[in-house]
Design goal:
Layout (H helix, E strand, L loop, with lengths): L2 H22 L4 H9 L4 H13 L6 H14 L2 H16 L7 H6 L1 H17 L3 H15 L2 E2 L4 E2 L4 E3 L5 E2 L4 E2 L4 E3 L3 E3 L11 E2 L4 E2 L4 E3 L3 E2 L4 E2 L4 E2 L8 E4 L2 E5 L6 H4 L6
Parallel strand pairs: 1-4, 2-5, 3-6, 4-7, 5-8, 6-9, 7-10, 8-11, 9-12, 10-13, 12-14
Antiparallel strand pairs: 14-15
Helix pairs in contact: 1-2, 1-5, 3-4, 5-7, 7-8
């Protein structure tokens, strides 16, 4: 499916759901209208919704929305990423039964889209604005992602509280991170000092990955693990410090969210 169809189809689902939700919960009809039904397309709704979340006495939601609107025009890939992140929530989170749920209610999704704006600004050389947004994201959502970090598409941050991702970290496509995950640094050098995470990886609750280590595609990091060394592709690690204990039952454990260790 091309990017235009992806956005259009997802938006149709979200609008249809919002109409039904407005009828079934009239007390929230204005919320559904302002968040979704008053907008012509997904990009407009996304920019407005995230900007309202980040509103502050120092920088109004109107200014943030203007910057987000401009970013989405200049970098349409941001819209694709936002759509794929919603799909990731819908497909992997059994508590997510509607496409509109992440858009309206999941702070991990909100934090991720706000990070994507901050990352865009960082790449444009507007580092102070990007760092201001990082601070607001951390304060509002309790998710701290440095705007220089590089995150792929189809990311799911389940619950998301306490997630920290450092400046030189990279995260591949289709990764699932649960709450309290840290991709932290080691050392004071300016070179790469944070984890490089491959695709399809599952990083479970409270796992701490520290230093310039590589996590191969399809790896599984068990809950509460402290990972200080490279993790081979399609292996499971657990413990403090983490050690290889087996292999995941799936090629890409991020999709199945299976927490069992074998």
């Amino acid at each position: 499916m091309d990017s235009n169809n992806l956005e259009r189809n997802l938006w149709q689902h979200i609008v249809s759901e919002a109409e039904q939700q407005s009828r079934s919960e009239p007390m929230l009809a204005s919320f559904f209208y302002m968040g979704i039904l008053s907008h012509q397309n997904f990009a407009s709704a996304l920019a407005a919704f995230i900007a309202n979340k980040l509103d502050s006495p120092v920088l109004s939601s109107a200014i943030i929305r203007q910057e987000f609107d401009q970013a989405l025009i200049q970098q349409p890939a941001l819209i694709v990423s936002a759509c794929l992140d919603i799909q990731a929530c819908f497909e992997r989170d059994p508590a997510c039964d509607l496409y509109s749920r992440p858009f309206l209610f999941f702070k991990g999704y909100h934090a991720l889209q706000a990070y994507r704006l901050a990352h865009y600004l960082w790449l444009q050389g507007r580092k102070d604005f990007a760092l201001f947004l990082q601070n607001r994201i951390s304060a509002v959502f309790d998710v701290d992602i440095h705007p220089a970090a590089v995150l792929g598409d189809g990311i799911m941050m389940d619950h998301a509280t306490g997630i920290v991702i450092g400046e030189t970290a990279t995260v591949g496509n289709n990764v699932s991170l649960l709450h309290a995950v840290t991709l932290g640094g080691s050392g004071c050098g300016k070179s790469s000092r944070h984890p490089q995470v491959g695709e399809g990886v599952l990083i479970s609750t409270g796992a701490k990955l520290l230093g310039n280590i590589k996590v191969g595609n399809g790896a599984k990091i068990a809950a509460g693990s402290v990972v200080l060394a490279d993790v081979r592709a399609h292996t499971t690690v657990a413990g403090v410090p983490a050690k290889e204990i087996g292999v995941p039952a799936e090629q890409e454990p991020a999709f199945n969210m299976n927490q069992q260790l074998k």
